TrEMBL record:
<dbReference type="InterPro" id="IPR014756">
    <property type="entry name" value="Ig_E-set"/>
</dbReference>
<keyword id="KW-0560">Oxidoreductase</keyword>
<protein>
    <submittedName>
        <fullName>Sulfite oxidase</fullName>
    </submittedName>
</protein>
<dbReference type="InterPro" id="IPR000572">
    <property type="entry name" value="OxRdtase_Mopterin-bd_dom"/>
</dbReference>
<dbReference type="GO" id="GO:0020037">
    <property type="term" value="F:heme binding"/>
</dbReference>
<dbReference type="GO" id="GO:0043546">
    <property type="term" value="F:molybdopterin cofactor binding"/>
</dbReference>
<keyword id="KW-0500">Molybdenum</keyword>
<feature type="domain" description="Oxidoreductase molybdopterin-binding">
    <location>
        <begin position="44"/>
        <end position="220"/>
    </location>
</feature>
<keyword id="KW-0479">Metal-binding</keyword>
<dbReference type="Pfam" id="PF00174">
    <property type="entry name" value="Oxidored_molyb"/>
</dbReference>
<dbReference type="Pfam" id="PF03404">
    <property type="entry name" value="Mo-co_dimer"/>
</dbReference>
<dbReference type="InterPro" id="IPR036374">
    <property type="entry name" value="OxRdtase_Mopterin-bd_sf"/>
</dbReference>
<dbReference type="GO" id="GO:0030151">
    <property type="term" value="F:molybdenum ion binding"/>
</dbReference>
<dbReference type="InterPro" id="IPR005066">
    <property type="entry name" value="MoCF_OxRdtse_dimer"/>
</dbReference>
<dbReference type="InterPro" id="IPR008335">
    <property type="entry name" value="Mopterin_OxRdtase_euk"/>
</dbReference>
<dbReference type="GO" id="GO:0008482">
    <property type="term" value="F:sulfite oxidase activity"/>
</dbReference>
<dbReference type="GO" id="GO:0006790">
    <property type="term" value="P:sulfur compound metabolic process"/>
</dbReference>
Length: 357
């Protein structure tokens, strides 16, 4: 299949890389649901052109019965619709010191869209998962050359989930985003949505689901999107999975001019992968923290917007505004990045510098 180029209506996004397409959402434009044409785009290879009528999903490996589903087959199965957050594991990389390699995402490689699709569990139950199965590999149609010492050459984009996660209701095969068919850059015709995990697990242009009897060690989880996990001081490269707790400030934006002597509404979003945010705190002096107001209701796997009234001092000059979130598991954002995480899972609380005028 030939590659499609990104659509023209991209003026709202920051281009981090043109080909393959890597586009960032300007986080200052935060709204409860991110519109599709403002949703960040992360690709590793050219976007594959797939027509819905030619698309099939093969379900194989450790199953009682192999399945080949068409697009119409999938649409006939009971569907769910839910807002789910996607955050790239490298979101915030531009904040790292020293300067990191890789795409230098600022704070906009994150979004919450409303996705519609079929729970992966329904498809796996139809195929009948054999006893002893451990992983479920999700493979996309896109492929290209990677620098993998174990298997050099051309690979597909693919990622596995442990069977237990694959069976969870927040994991589904999505064919709609914000009420419309997926766009080519977000995975048309069908992509995985893996609620609670960083974006790399939400495989786009999904064509193969393979159940395995042994843990999968693909490139995209053992070399890329992997971090150093220490067990008894021995570091092992381990797949990146759950989204870490984080609050991000949308307003004020970096270098924004804030009027002195008036209240200012600090505004942002907070999230935590498989947990819920219970508290967001804001600091405007680098020493004291005050609780922000959480807006709306808590929705599992989506972000929560928050606001804080900052009574801006009269004194002009540079101020540093910070936010930090805490989740139901009691996790709070760290003060600095742990280098064992390499350039992933970046959730330390950093300051937005603004100018009081
Ligand atoms: N799926 C395929 N097939 N190819 C990819 O390059 N990128 C992943 C994931 N799914 C990718 C993919 C990464 S790293 C992220 S963060 C999300 O898609 C981004 O989804 P989006 O482009 O819809 O925002
Ligand atoms: Mo990503």
């Amino acid at each position: 299949s030939e590659a499609v180029s990104i659509s023209a209506s991209r003026s709202g996004l920051i281009i981090r890389e043109k080909e393959p397409a890597n586009l960032e959402f300007p986080f200052a434009s935060l709204t409860p649901v991110t519109p599709t044409n403002e949703f960040f785009v992360r690709t590793h290879f050219p976007i594959p052109a797939i027509s819905a009528k030619d698309w099939t999903l093969t379900v194989d490996g450790e199953v009682e019965q192999e399945l080949v589903l068409t697009y119409d087959d999938l649409l006939r199965l009971p569907s769910v619709t839910a807002p789910v957050l996607l955050e790239c594991a490298g979101n915030g990389r531009a904040q790292l010191v020293p300067k990191a390699k890789g795409l230098l995402w600022d704070t906009g490689a994150v979004g919450t869209a409303e996705w519609t699709g079929v729970p992966l569990s329904a498809v796996l139950e139809k195929a009948g998962v054999k006893k002893g199965a451990v992983d479920v590999i999700l493979q996309g149609a896109d492929k290209g050359e990677v620098d993998d010492p174990k298997s050099p050459g051309v690979v597909h984009f693919e990622r596995s989930l442990p069977l237990a996660k694959a069976m969870r209701p927040e994991v589904f095969l999505a064919y709609k985003m914000n009420g419309k068919d997926l766009t080519p850059d977000h995975g048309f015709p069908v992509r995985a949505i893996v609620g609670g995990w960083y974006g790399m697990a939400s495989v786009k242009w999904l064509t193969h689901v393979t159940v395995t009897a042994a843990p999968f060690e693909g490139f995209w989880q053992s070399l890329e999107y992997a971090y150093w996990k220490r067990e008894r001081e021995r570091p092992t490269l381990t797949a990146v999975t759950e989204v870490q707790v984080k609050a991000q400030i949308a307003r004020p934006a970096l270098s924004e001019a804030v009027p002195g002597g008036k209240p200012y509404r600090v505004f942002g979003a907070a999230w935590s992968g498989e947990s819920d945010v219970v508290r967001v705190e804001v600091s405007t002096d680098g020493k004291t923290w005050s609780e922000a107001t959480l807006l709306g209701e808590s929705v599992p796997f989506a972000w929560r917007l928050w606001a804080f009234q900052w009574n801006v001092p009269e004194a002009t000059g540079q101020y540093r505004v910070m936010a930090r979130a805490t989740d139901t598991k009691g996790h709070t954002q760290p003060v600095k990045h742990d280098s064992d995480r390499r350039t992933y899972m970046i959730n330390f609380a950093f300051a937005v510098e603004v100018e009081v005028v």
